[in-house]
Amino acid sequence: MSEAREQHLDELREIVAEVLEVEPEEITETGSFAEEHEADSLRAIEILARIEKKYKIDIPQSELPQMENLKAVYDVVATQAGWQD
C-alpha cells in the first residue's frame, strides 16, 4: 500500500470515527458503519460533509449508499478528488 493511500485512509478513518463517536482503531476497512457502529443516514451525511470540507470536493449524494465502509468511502473520495494512490 502506498504511503499516500495509507495517509488518506488514516485521515478518513479519523473523520468517520469522530462522527460515529468511536475510537479510530474500531473502524476497519471493510466493517459496515451501519451494522458495527449503528450509523444512520444523518451520520452518513455528516461524514460526507466533513470529507467535502476537508478535501474541498463535491461528492454527489447518490454516492452515499455505496459509502458503507472505510474502503468504499476511500474509493468514492479518491475518484472525486482525483487521487492517484
Which helices and strands occur, and which strands form pairs?
Blueprint: H1 3-20, H2 33-37, H3 41-55, H4 70-81
Helix pairs in contact: 1-3, 1-4
What can you see in these coordinates?
20% of the residues are buried. The protein has four helices and no strands. The mean pLDDT is 96. The protein is mainly alpha-helical and 85 residues long. This is Acyl carrier protein. It holds the Pfam family PP-binding. InterPro entries: ACP-like_sf (IPR036736), PP-bd_ACP (IPR009081). Residues 3-81 form the Carrier domain.
Number of strands: 0
Shape by Cα distribution: globular
Rounded to the nearest angstrom, the distance between the terminal CA atoms is: 9 Å
Low-confidence stretches: none
- Characterize the largest beta sheet: strand count, sense, and whether it forms a barrel: none
Helix content: 55-70%
Oligomer: single chain
Into which percentage range does the β-strand content fall?
A: under 5%
Q: What's the helix-strand series? A: HHHH
- Tally the helices: what do you get? 4
Averaging pLDDT over every residue, what do you get? 96
Please give a quick description of this structure:
By secondary structure, the chain is an all-alpha fold. It is built from four helices and no strands.
Q: Which key terms come to mind for this protein?
A:
mainly alpha; about 80 residues; about 60% helix
